[in-house]
């Protein structure tokens, strides 16, 4: 094998590329289902959870569509399509069940290490928006997955929910908010590290500072994985029966290198972001909530403004943003050539079509890039009128790569979710896209296993149901099951108390 060395004479059962929450979740599930399988994780950076799973590189929201207005689409007749919100919430309940199972079995540490109760709120101002939020509340309040949602247009009530939103605001301004006390904040960095600790404690191998540079299918059906040490050591080669590419923004390039036809036609549109952050205890103490507003015209869904309580390493902070921007990098630690190097004959037309059809998005991103510090502060002050510039610092978040895929009518479409790309034989799969991402990692990975291991999955099903009792059903179809499941997972995760 020329100058490369063989890192494993025996082929791996599972190779996980990328040290983020997706690889960690898939590895943990496989270790429960098939503990005798060999697993190796390849991470290019010096540790796991340093890219999108890092708590300061993402919003950290336990995405359950409790407060994110973009998941409930308003129809021309003024009603709301809540199907996306229900679907996202269903997925988050699956993740909660798996995490609570691992906590109960002692395979994850105390849940406060990675998940904490933080109410989820939506907040709007102006008569039209108040009416909008009231109608959205009416559409959701009786649904079993949104039980406990509250609505108020009374400033005194909203002040009691989170005091920072009211001082300095004109008393004549109509305002309204919804609140779900059972919302959560999730530190996906801590969760990822905990899951990898469980894996390595049970036989998996974690190799850091090892960048995968090639994927090639061999004649015997195994995947040849070429990698190199990030400081230039001799390349190494491993072989694996199954490969998962969970490398975040780096996944597209690796799937393209694999040569599988299923990856043809996919492109990526990178969006960077920034947040304002404060750790001032006096400010943080006055706002315990994740508060989402309405997106600007032309803004992508991931750019909906929000003022969030974050709990990292047991310490609370506040973040506001995101302020979207553009960088051709597909990873925060990536290359300036990531975008041009991703171009292929099969994806040029879809990418050009998306550029033509999303002029509002391009204009929005240009505006964000040109926004001054004063403009950024004004956006925060729309939520928190008395915010002072000196109390906040600007931090750069992680890169998000939105999926571009072929479309028969339009040539190409821009997607704002996640997309699993898998070979026909199920021997390799990867994940493209962004939000809601991490919060729905468990159902995404269970679906991937069902797709890539159809014969094994039937034998695994009883074990899956032990870990995730609602798997294969919809909690929204059974109010009693929904209430019991959410109460049980809330108790195990220590998030069932009202805040």
TrEMBL record:
Keyword Ribonucleoprotein tagged: no
InterPro entries per the UniProt record, alphabetical: FAD/NAD-bd_sf (IPR036188), MQO (IPR006231)
Key words, A-Z: FAD, Flavoprotein, Oxidoreductase, Tricarboxylic acid cycle
GO molecular function list: (S)-2-hydroxyglutarate dehydrogenase activity; L-malate dehydrogenase (quinone) activity
GO annotation terms (biological process): tricarboxylic acid cycle
EC numbers: 1.1.5.4
Family, as annotated: Belongs to the MQO family.
Cofactor(s) it depends on: FAD
UniProt pathway: Carbohydrate metabolism; tricarboxylic acid cycle; oxaloacetate from (S)-malate (quinone route): step 1/1
UniProt entry tagged with the keyword Disulfide bond: no
Catalytic class of the enzyme: oxidoreductase
Catalytic activity: (S)-malate + a quinone = a quinol + oxaloacetate
Family annotation (HAMAP family): MQO (MF_00212)
Protein name: Probable malate:quinone oxidoreductase
């Amino acid at each position: 094998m020329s100058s490369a060395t063989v890192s494993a004479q025996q082929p791996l059962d599972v190779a996980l590329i990328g040290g983020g929450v997706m690889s960690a979740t898939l590895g943990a599930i496989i270790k429960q289902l098939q503990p005798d399988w060999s697993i190796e994780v390849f991470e290019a950076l010096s540790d796991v959870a340093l890219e999108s799973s890092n708590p300061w590189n993402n919003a950290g929201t336990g995405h359950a569509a409790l407060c994110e207005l973009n998941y409930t689409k308003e129809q021309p007749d003024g009603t709301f399509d809540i199907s996306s919100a229900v679907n996202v919430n269903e997925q988050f309940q699956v993740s909660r069940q798996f995490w609570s199972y691992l906590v109960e079995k002692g395979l994850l540490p105390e849940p406060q290490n990675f998940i904490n109760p933080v109410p989820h709120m939506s907040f709007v101002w102006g008569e039209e928006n108040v009416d909008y939020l009231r109608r959205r509340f009416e559409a959701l309040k009786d649904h079993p997955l949104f039980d406990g949602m509250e609505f108020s247009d009374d400033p005194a009530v909203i002040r009691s929910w989170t005091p920072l939103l009211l001082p300095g605001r004109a008393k004549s301004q109509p305002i309204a908010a919804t609140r779900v006390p059972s919302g959560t904040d999730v530190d996906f960095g801590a969760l990822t590290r905990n899951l990898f600790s469980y894996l390595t404690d049970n036989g998996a191998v974690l190799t850091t500072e090892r960048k995968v540079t090639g994927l090639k299918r061999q004649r015997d059906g195994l995947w040849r994985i070429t990698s190199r040490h990030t400081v230039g050591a001799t390349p190494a080669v491993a072989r694996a029966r199954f490969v998962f590419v969970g490398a975040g923004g780096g996944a597209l390039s690796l799937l393209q290198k694999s040569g599988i036809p299923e990856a043809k036609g996919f492109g990526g549109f990178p969006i960077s972001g920034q947040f304002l952050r404060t750790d001032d205890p006096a400010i943080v103490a006055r706002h315990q909530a994740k508060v989402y507003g309405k997106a600007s015209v032309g803004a992508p869904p991931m750019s909906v403004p929000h003022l969030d309580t974050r709990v990292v390493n047991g310490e609370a902070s506040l973040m506001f943003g995101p302020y979207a921007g553009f960088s051709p990098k597909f990873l925060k630690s990536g290359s300036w050539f990531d975008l041009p190097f991703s171009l292929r004959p099969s994806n040029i037309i879809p990418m050009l079509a998306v550029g033509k059809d999303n002029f509002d998005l391009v204009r929005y991103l240009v505006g964000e890039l040109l926004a001054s510090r004063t403009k950024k502060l004004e956006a925060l002050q729309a939520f928190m009128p008395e915010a002072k510039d000196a109390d906040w610092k600007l931090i750069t978040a992680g890169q998000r790569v939105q999926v571009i895929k072929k479309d028969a009518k339009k040539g190409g479409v821009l997607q704002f979710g996640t997309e699993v790309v898998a070979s026909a034989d199920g021997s390799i799969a990867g994940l493209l896209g962004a939000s809601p991402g991490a919060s729905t990692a468990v159902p995404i990975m269970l679906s991937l296993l069902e797709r890539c291991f159809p014969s094994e999955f039937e034998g695994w099903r009883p074990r899956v149901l032990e870990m995730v009792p609602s798997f294969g059903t919809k909690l929204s179809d059974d109010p009693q099951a929904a209430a019991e499941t959410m109460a049980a997972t809330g108790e195990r995760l220590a998030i069932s108390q009202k805040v």
